[in-house]
Amino acid sequence: MNYFSKTSRWISAPQTMVSRYSGQDGAPFFRKKYPVEKSDPLPVIIRFCGIGLAELYLNGEKISAGILDPAPSVYDKHCYFREYRATLLPGMNLFAVILGNGLYNCQANDFWQFHSAPWRDYPKMIFEMRDAASSEVLLTSDSSWLVSTDTPIIFNNWHGGESYDARKDFDHWLTPEFDDSSWQHAAVKPSPGGEVIPEIAPAAEIVNSFEAVDTIAPFVYDLGRIITGNVKIAVRGEAGSKITLRYSDHLSPDGKFTQVDLGQFVPDTEVQTDNFILRGNRITEEWSPSFVYHSFQYVRISIRGNAEIISLTAREIRTGFERIGSVTTGNDTMQKLYQAVMASYSGNFVGIPTDCPHREKNGWTADAAFAAESGLTAFAAEKSYLRYLQCLADTQRQSGQLAAIAPSAGWGYNYGSGPVWDSALWLIPYYLYIHTGNPQAIKTFYDAIARHCDYTGTLAENGIVRFGLGDHCHPFPEKAVPIEFANTCFYIMETDMLARFAGLLGKEDDRQYYSDCAQKLRKELLAAHPDRRESTALALLLQLGMGSNDTLPQLIEQIEAVGGKADFGIIGAKFIPRLLAENGRSDLAFKIFTQQEFPGWGNWIARGATTLWEYWDGSFSRNHIMFGDIAAWMMRYPGGIAPSWDNPAMQELVLKPLFPEGLNDFAVKYRHASGWISLSWQKQDDKISLQVTSPAAGKLESSNRVYDLHPGENRFNIER
Predict the structure, then answer these.
(1) How far apart (Å, rounded) are the C-alpha atoms in residues 327 and 378?
(2) Cis bond before residue 643 (omega within 30° of 0)
(3) How far apart are the C-alpha atoms of 289 and 354, rounded to whole Å?
(4) Measured between alpha carbons, how far is residue 489 from residues 350, 418, 496, 524 in Å?
(5) CA-CA-CA-CA torsion sign (327, 332, 334, 335)
(6) Residue 214's pLDDT is what?
(7) Three-class DSSP category at 168
(8) Which of 304, 589, 620, 631 could be a cystine partner for 341, CB 3.0 to 4.6 Å?
(9) Which residues of the chain have pLDDT under 70?
(10) What DSSP state is assigned to residue 82?
(11) Could you give the dihedral angle defined by the CA atoms of residues 338, 344, 345 and 349, in that order, rounded to the nearest 10 degrees?
(12) Residue 461, SS3?
């Protein structure tokens, strides 16, 4: 479907990108006047897409959604527009647009080859305005729009930062009266190549701001916790003085500011660095970046020239989805872990789910999949995941192969992908269904999943898949489950899931075919690996229903033998605590989470973590989400919020709280389809005092007993 009329053109500044090294790092500014000759205001509908990033203004007021919008996509497959309703005033009106580079025009010579993306070009836009009453097209984007590239945003780089020269400010340029006679006419340009479709996901937003006051050294600010976002500064000084802000999520071992490890994949770019050059009008100047975000706890400021910092305000940014769930407990480690998961999840969802919000900002698939349930228990993120799934499907080759990151410009097909990482394509639709009850993702992406599963079969020899990553970030890699075992297990999971999806969609032939495939693969895996004993291997066998009578006891014995330490990577972190809770050992899962020796989550908290780390030893990134299923574990087991394939979105309201030994109190709030649920419990001597505020009638299952829930307040005393 074409959502724009034939007279709407993609336009850009007149320059042509002659090579991937072409200049124009700055942000082009556009203007277009539109007169309203009637005496009454004119309601209009505007459709607008500006890529890489865009801000749209009408008569000096920003009307585009959020910030850092639109989110990245595979631009030669899909571009996303938003629709806005606005009112034009009698007389002359002024539309203005600022375009940022984003991931579309990635100038950095980056490891993932976005600088060589087939879509890459200077930022461009398409615009159309219609009369809200008659749908008549009133204004479109064409070469009559005026543009300047000599603007105050002199540099903006997705992986680097932003530089602003206030001496280039255009006074009153957002008003019709501004003299734009020296500006150029825009040029009609080729489209990015992708279908232009409506944006369904919310835009990123500034969700919190606070002033930074603590310093650990001269000009080094400590926010007290890691956030994702940027800063707003207020400064005063002479014209031409330059303020440089550098951001980091950690300090060096000797307590000094460092950005080591953050720029390893973009070696020719100064990463996490913003610059502001003062106009110098002897009054306080305020500035914040428009087209970049960072991850940081520490900000180091350097000043060249004569200037002073009046204030520095941190601004937290994430996709603007609604909050639908939360956890509270008096256990300090568990509470801090929950907060760390929420901080890492939020900070790694700025438009798309990412691995980290500083070094890469890439949509790594396993990170997205393994953290999805934690997100879905806390946020109304369904539409954002549907958009991400489209982005992932857009990387799919004709063979069925996927990239390890989405979007991808061609990197990640022959490293990083494989059954474990590719699981995002089928795990996320499964999670969306059980948490929302909506089968849309399964219906939309079923063919892509089937094509991928068939492709994975071409990698298998006697059922075994040897390509892909495995139990990533194991603290002792030599003890990790073999990569071929992990990937074959996920191949089996995918065939199981496809059979399940086919049954839901009434595709009986497919259901039988993939069910038979899964059973055959199980036999081939056990023949090739008859005696695997790594903790993650045991958990995968249990997850697939392939364990023997001694598989669970062996897993428990191994966990207890190491004192609950994390003897696994991200696969084990996802499945082991869940399997323990589902088999009567939630106490052991609780111990894994809270014990404070290395390696483990509790060790991170003991070392001051406020977000989740990439490696158990704290090296490299301090803001990763791939170990983040713990928030979903808390909501599902001690919180009792347990949707399932057979009871999606808890359409039958049944709460199933567990009471792990060592955890003395717990409370959750969760927005159910029928209203808000509040559940809390406290251990008191030989009883558990449990309170539930329920929006509807339902059941509570605990200790092999079933209790009736009535709408409103419910109180129970349960024997321990």
Answers:
(1) 9
(2) no
(3) 21
(4) 31, 12, 11, 11
(5) positive
(6) 83
(7) helix
(8) 631
(9) 18-24
(10) E
(11) 160
(12) strand
Q: What pLDDT score does 548 carry?
A: 95
Q: Is 465 exposed, middle or buried (0-12, 13-18, 19+ CB in 10 A)?
A: buried
d(CA 247, CA 274): 9
Per-residue confidence (pLDDT) for residue 22, from 0 to 100 = 60
> What local confidence, expressed as pLDDT, does residue 18 receive?
63
Q: What is the DSSP string of 180-213?
A: -TTSEEPEE----SSEEEE--SPPEEEEEEEE--
Which residues have a Cβ under 8 Å from the Cβ of 140 and sit 6 or more positions away? 4, 5, 7, 8, 9, 127, 128, 129
Which residue reads 């994949």 in tokens?
265
- Coil, strand or helix at 510: helix
Contacts 24+ apart (CB under 8 A), 410-414: 410/113, 410/116, 410/117, 410/118, 411/111, 411/112, 411/113, 412/112
654-655/698-702 β-pairing: parallel
Please give the pLDDT value at position 17.
82
Cα 182 from Cα 198, distance rounded (Å): 35
DSSP 3-state of 235: strand
HEC sequence for 416-460: CCCHHHHCHHHHHHHHHHHHHCCCHHHHHHHHHHHHHHHHHHHHE
Q: Where are the beta strands (DSSP E) in 59-217?
A: 61-62, 78-88, 91-100, 124-131, 137-140, 146-148, 153-156, 162-165, 184-185, 187-188, 195-198, 204-211, 215-217
CA dihedral 459→463→467→473, nearest 10 degrees, is 160
Kindly report the CA angle at 159 between 228 and 361, in degrees rounded to 5?
55
Amino acid at site 621: S
Nearest to 142 by CA among 98, 176, 186, 80: 186
pLDDT given for residue 20 in this prediction? 63
Give me 19's structure tokens. Answer: 């090579």
Give the C-alpha separation, 317 to 68, whole Å. 9
Q: Is the preceding omega at residue 325 within 30 degrees of 0, hence cis?
A: no
Q: Taking Cα atoms as reference points, which of 337, 312, 328 lies closest to residue 603?
A: 337
What is the full DSSP assignment across 384-428? HHHHHHHHHHTT--TTS---SBSS-SS-SSSSS-SHHHHTHHHHH
Three-state SS at 309: strand
CB-count exposure of residue 37 (10 Å: 0-12, 13-18, 19+): exposed
> How confident is the model at residue 268, as a pLDDT?
85
Closest Cα partner for 367 from 377, 383, 355, 379? 355
**How many residues are present in the chain?**
720
One-letter identity of residue 334: M
Q: Count Cα neighbours of 595 within 13 Å in the Cβ-side half-sphere.
A: 18
Indicate left, alpha or beta for 426 from its phi (over 0: left) and psi (-120 to 50: alpha): alpha
In the prediction, which pLDDT does 282 show? Answer: 76
